[in-house]
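## retry 2 of 3
previous attempt timed out at serialization; input unchanged, resubmitting
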Amino acid sequence: MHGDYFPDLDVVVIDGGAATARCIESILAAYPAASLRIYIPRANGDGDLSASAQVRFLEVKKHTTRAEFCEQGWRAGNAAYVQFVDGRSVLDGRWLGKAVHTLQDDPDLGAVCGRRIQVGRKENLFDLVAEQRWNFPAGNVPACGPEAMIRRNALEEADGFDPRLRSGETLDLSLRMLSQGRSIRLLDAPMTRSDASCGLRQYLRGAYAGGYAFSVLTILHGRRGGYWVECLRILLRGCVAPACVLVGQFAPLTIWTGWVLSLAGLAAFFYPRLFLVEKFMQRMNFSEKQARRFAWHSVLVVLPEFFGLLRAIPHGVAGLLRRKIKGSICKKQL
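## retry succeeded, writing output
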């Protein structure tokens, strides 16, 4: 940090249930109390949290989405920098100082994020998938994840989070920050650590949310961000490939035509397991066992992603219309 100066910092803790108290303890231990304000949902309040002068409770509705609370949280404060953290995570003791220092040194930088570590990644495939979701090479990146420190000015320039999005809110915000000339940087440093094990239900919900996010982002931003490629992958492997297998087996085709169509569909559906294991080992530094498990994830994840993609289409179209109407109103006012 520059000298012993610690600028004011707002921390928005996204609902972590019973684990929120431990998350807040890690935040209080990492940054001087006089410069810190922590915002959490009122539902997470208990006696221990209420005793801290740095904690501010925000009233939330019963079914408040992550995007709605993030928007409410950062607008409740006024510090120059805002850290968003999942309430189930423990913040690394050196992260806040490192992130603030990085933002201070580069005025064009809109957001910084670090490594998110899942403790059970070696034993649990779902934890491994959760960790790899944001495991990019260090440096400037196309988006930040849900845990990141963002400059308040960058939030204001991008008009904050879109509270109507059910998933992909940080990816959407990232694209709008980039369009304002800001950059986003991933530091090769630990940011948060989580020992909350992911199960099948959380995995399926996350995959569904991923398909939703790719679809909405493609509708809202077109080719920017490259999320249309993910939509194409989901459509080809999650819909076209199974359809080819079914048509090849049950449609009134010649035997050879049916088998060729079915085999092509199976090859496309199982492509990651058949051809990408070695690539996963090299690119992600996996053992062969981890690479094979991750390949099976890549095979099966397209199914819940496909349903999420379909669900997002009406929301994405509605969001695009809202933004176009809002843009037209702003132009008229100017």
